[in-house]
């Protein structure tokens, strides 16, 4: 064997076998890593798709909230003008303005996907750092909106309590003909027309209450502020949806 140099050949063969095994293991590890990354990417893309749907729903809700808030600002201005002039106008118009101010809606974001990503630990694994930062900033904005709603809710409760001290508002409507679940209230025209003077006097007394008028003023300010907040939040959402679209396109 020494004469034939067989030990050297055997050593070379053994080293070659070892190298093949090592290379095979490295390839297997790389394939496994690639498969795990692909699976993680699929999970990530699913979250991105759901996030996009949530944000698009938020945009629609914000547009609705802007319309509602604009209507409330208009109604508050109408009541202020009439109060300044001590003029009631139509009892129906007054009631419509008050109905606009009394029935409230709040912006509640579709954050199920975001919260699920946070609780499952998948949020921290997002590869796009810019996307993560913008999502966190949007969450902060949503918390600020929730805080504004809480403040507005307090002012609204004071306003409603004071209004109900002066106006017997339930007398305006025929609940049997109304659709309460749809907030579709029908006026009791017979009662209104037969009690017009009494109902108008209630409103004149209400106009003399400074707390009520101050709260009308606050409602106008607060809803004007909310419109501005929503209009500033919409570009945040649009920026995020653009990033999500880019991520989904390179699937």
Short overview:
With 251 residues, the protein is mainly α. It is built from seven helices and no strands. Helix 1 runs antiparallel to helix 3 and helix 4 runs antiparallel to helix 7.
Give a verbal description of the structure:
By secondary structure, this protein is mainly α. The protein has 7 helices and no strands. The protein has helices at 6-85, 91-102, 112-120, 129-166, 189-194, 196-207, 210-249. Helix 1 packs antiparallel against helix 3 (112-120), helix 1 packs antiparallel against helix 7 (210-249) and helix 4 runs antiparallel to helix 7. It is rod-shaped, with a radius of gyration of 33 Å.
Structural class by sheet pairing and helices: mainly alpha
**Shape summary:** rod-shaped
| Rg measurement, Å | 33 Å
Helix-strand pattern, N to C? Answer: HHHHHHH
> What gap, in angstroms, lies between the N and C termini?
59 Å
The overall average pLDDT, rounded, is 87
Query: Proportion of β residues?
Result: under 5%
Q: Approximately how much helix is present in the residues? A: over 70%
Number of helices: 7
Low-confidence parts, pLDDT < 50 over ≥5 residues? none
Could you give the count of β-strands?
Answer: 0
Largest sheet: none
């Amino acid at each position: 064997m020494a004469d034939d140099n067989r030990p050297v050949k055997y050593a070379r063969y053994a080293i070659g076998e070892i190298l093949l095994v090592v290379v095979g293991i490295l390839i297997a590890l790389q394939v496994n890593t690639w498969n795990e990354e692909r699976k993680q990417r699929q999970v990530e893309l699913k979250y991105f798709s759901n996030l996009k749907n949530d944000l698009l729903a938020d945009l629609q809700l914000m547009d609705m909230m802007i319309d509602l808030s604009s209507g409330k600002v208009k109604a508050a201005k109408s009541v202020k003008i009439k109060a300044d002039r001590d003029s009631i106008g139509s009892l129906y118009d007054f009631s419509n303005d008050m109905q606009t101010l009394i029935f409230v809606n709040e912006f509640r974001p579709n954050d199920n996907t975001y919260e699920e990503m946070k609780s499952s630990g998948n949020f921290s694994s997002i590869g796009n750092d810019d996307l993560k930062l913008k999502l966190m900033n949007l969450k902060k904005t949503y918390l600020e909106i929730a805080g504004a709603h809480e403040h507005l809710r307090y002012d609204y409760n004071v306003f409603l309590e004071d209004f109900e001290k002066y106006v017997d508002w339930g007398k305006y409507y025929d609940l049997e003909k109304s659709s309460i679940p749809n907030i579709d209230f029908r006026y009791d025209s017979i009662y209104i027309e037969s009690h017009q003077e009494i109902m108008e006097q209630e409103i004149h007394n209400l106009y003399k209450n400074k707390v009520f008028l101050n709260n009308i003023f606050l409602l106008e300010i607060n809803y004007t502020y909310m419109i501005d907040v929503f209009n500033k939040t919409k570009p945040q959402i649009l920026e995020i949806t653009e990033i999500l679209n880019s991520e989904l396109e390179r699937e």
